[in-house]
Structure formats: C-alpha cells, structure tokens
C-alpha cells in the first residue's frame, strides 16, 4: 500500500488537460481529463477531488472510482466523468508502472497484437478531401473519417447533401474505407436523405447521425439504412449507453475514455456492448494519454473494431500533436492500417514532463467553434 501524495492537472496546447498522480513511494501515473471547450469546469472538479483523495491508497482504483462517482448526491454528467477519467487513467498507469507491466496485463491480457486505426481528413467545413485522403494513405492508413457536411439548417439545400455523397465517393475511389461523421449537426429531415445518398458507397459507419438525446429518431433512422450506426462520444457512463443497446439502434459504440470515467468504465461499456453484438470503436480526437489508454482497453476487448487517432487532426493548429509530449512517438507508427499494441509499462508511452511543463505556461483553454446560420441563428457544431 502506498498512499497518494500529490495530484495535479496540467493544461497544455493545443487543447489537452493532463493529470499527474504521485504516491508516497515516488511512483507516478499520468491521466488525461480533456473536455473540449469546458477545461475550466473540469479543473474545478479536480480541485475538489484532489483535496479529497490525498492519502487514499493509490492501488485502490475501484474504491476511488466509486467514491468519486457515488460519494456525492449528484453524479454523472460530462464534467464529473471527465474529471474522474483523468484520475482513473493516472491510477491505472501508476499501478502498472509500479508492477512493470502494461496496463492490459492487469485487465486480463491482450487478445490481439495490432489495432486497426483511422485518422481524420477535412475539417469542420469539409470541401476537397481527396488530397487529404491520399496523404493519410501515404502515412499508412487504410481508413479515414470526415464530417459529412458543414453546418446545416433543419431543412436545407439538397445540393449540400449531394456534395457530401460525392466526397464520400471520391475517398472510396482511392480504395480507402471511410467513416462519415454527421456530428449531430444533421437534423432528421436531412439525415434520412443523407443516409440514403451515402449508402451505395458502403461507409464504415455513420457517426452521430442524430444527437444522442434523440434516441427515438436514431432508432427510426437505423431502420431505414443498412449503414452501421455509430455513437457514444456524448454519452458519459454505462447507464447512458444502456437505452441505445436495448433499443437495438447502435451497431458501433464510441465511448470516449476522457468522458466516461476512464479505463474502469470504458471496460464495462465494452463488455455491455459485446452482449448486444455491438462493436467497440473508441472516440479519441484527444491527446496522447487518452489514445494510449484507449489502446490498452482495445487490446483486451474481443469486440474491438477500430480506433480513432488524432494524428494531425485539424484541431491541432498550435504545432503540438500526439507525438509532441512523449519520448517514444514511434508507438504511433501506422503500417497497412494498423499500429502495434504498446508494449511498455503502464500506458506504454513515456511522458516528456519537462516539455509538458514548459508548454503549459500560459496555456489557454480551448474554445469550441460556433456555427451561425444565414438568419443569425445558432446551428449545431
């Protein structure tokens, strides 16, 4: 037993929030609590929990998880779960490093040696994607994801939908698989039409075809298309996922390890998904710690399908990327669409703490973009 001695969060560009936990014996673990556009809210929650958990046994990961989740009258929600994610991931990293094994060995051992991955092309307002797809192909990827459209009205021009279908075809013509992210910005009158237009191109999946708050609409849409339906980045614990499983309207589940309570909870969600014959494809447009943590779970999950990587994602505009803050960026090498499961202790990545602290100075909280329609109205991002 080694009590927790110190806990801290470190804000770093382009938009990530790292967590460092140290026990009384000097063992260290790193986590990530990134919540895009709400950094300050998560930091406030971490302040309170750090004060609470100093002195707890660092090995008691599940006890700390339960105390954080159930130890107050209010529970769940994206802010609390994202803060908990940072703590949970760091505790798993600390424990596995202390034992000098990868985290996946503490989760029962790996069931695969390599992980299929995909990367983003385009951006929040996608236009020409062929060059981006070719660049990803040259990097070793055989699958990409892109936003289906820019912002749309509730009932918008048919030409916007046809343009989206044409972009999907262009990527497929390069011989690549393509996942299409509706991003919750496409409302039902348009989503039905768009799903029908892209279906002949056999996308890998349709992500967030409607906002997850509209479960009945998603169920209706799932019945209209043969395209696999994927969702989960805005669902924050196993209880939130259960209605989608029970409604039979999701084929690919996408929990985000930074938003659902870390390794402990994403493992439970993955197991739930398996019982409904639903594939696991963790959401992760985040930093290196989140990606490494996701990969530890991917390695042990029988229903794992594909992992999102934020390598060169359009949000990384400050010059920092997933290789910036680690000393072994070769772990992200993509070969024929796959990366090797990291084999080092803990998360399998080595944090360059000096660079983390240097670049954290005066780091600003990332602000989510806002889309405004032609009438001055707010549109879904």
Automatic annotation (TrEMBL):
Q: Which GO terms describe its biological process?
A: amino acid catabolic process; D-galactonate catabolic process
Keywords, comma-separated and alphabetical: Lyase, Magnesium, Metal-binding
Is Zinc found in the keyword set? no
GO MF terms on file? galactonate dehydratase activity; metal ion binding
Q: Which SUPFAM superfamilies match?
A: Enolase C-terminal domain-like, Enolase N-terminal domain-like
Cofactor(s) required for function per UniProt = Mg(2+)
Every Mandelate racemase/muconate lactonizing enzyme C-terminal domain range:
126-228
User: Which CDD domains does its entry note?
Assistant: D-galactonate_dehydratase
Pfam families membership: MR_MLE_C (PF13378), MR_MLE_N (PF02746)
Name of the protein in its database record: Probable starvation sensing protein rspA
Q: Which organism is it from?
A: Cephalotrichum gorgonifer
């Amino acid at each position: 037993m080694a009590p927790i001695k110190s806990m801290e969060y470190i804000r770093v560009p382009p938009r990530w929030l790292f967590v460092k936990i140290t026990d009384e014996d000097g063992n260290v673990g790193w986590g990530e609590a990134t919540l895009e556009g709400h950094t300050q809210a998560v930091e406030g929650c971490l302040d309170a929990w750090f004060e609470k958990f100093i002195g707890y046994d660092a090995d008691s990961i599940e006890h700390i998880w339960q105390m954080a989740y159930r130890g107050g009258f209010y529970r769940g929600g994206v802010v609390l779960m994202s803060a908990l994610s940072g703590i949970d991931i760091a505790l798993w990293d600390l424990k596995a490093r202390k034992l000098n094994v990868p985290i996946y060995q503490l989760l029962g051992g790996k069931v695969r040696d390599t992980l299929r991955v995909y990367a983003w092309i385009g951006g929040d307002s996608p236009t020409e994607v062929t060059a981006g797809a070719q660049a990803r192909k040259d990097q070793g990827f055989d699958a990409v994801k892109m936003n289906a459209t820019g912002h749309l009205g509730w009932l918008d021009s048919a030409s916007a939908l046809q343009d989206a279908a044409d972009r999907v075809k262009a990527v497929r013509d390069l011989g690549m698989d393509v996942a299409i992210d509706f991003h919750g910005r496409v409302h039902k009158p348009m989503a039905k039409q768009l799903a029908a237009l892209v279906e002949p191109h056999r996308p890998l999946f349709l992500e967030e075809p409607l906002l997850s708050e509209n479960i009945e609409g998603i169920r209706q849409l799932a019945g209209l298309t043969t395209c696999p339906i994927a969702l989960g980045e805005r669902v924050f614990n196993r209880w939130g996922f259960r209605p989608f499983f029970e409604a039979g309207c999701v084929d690919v589940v996408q929990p985000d390890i930074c938003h659902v309570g870390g390794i402990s909870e994403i493992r439970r969600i993955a197991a739930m998904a398996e019982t409904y014959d639903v594939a696991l494809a963790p959401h992760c447009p985040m930093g290196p710690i989140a990606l490494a943590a996701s990969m530890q779970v991917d390695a042990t999950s029988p229903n794992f399908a594909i992992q999102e990587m934020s390598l060169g994602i359009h949000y990384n505009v400050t010059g920092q990327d997933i290789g910036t803050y680690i000393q072994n960026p070769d772990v992200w090498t993509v070969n024929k669409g796959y990366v090797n499961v990291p084999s080092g202790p803990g998360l399998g990545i080595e944090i360059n703490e000096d660079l983390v602290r240097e670049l954290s100075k005066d780091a600003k909280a990332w602000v989510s973009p806002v889309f405004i329609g032609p009438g001055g109205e707010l549109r879904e991002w």
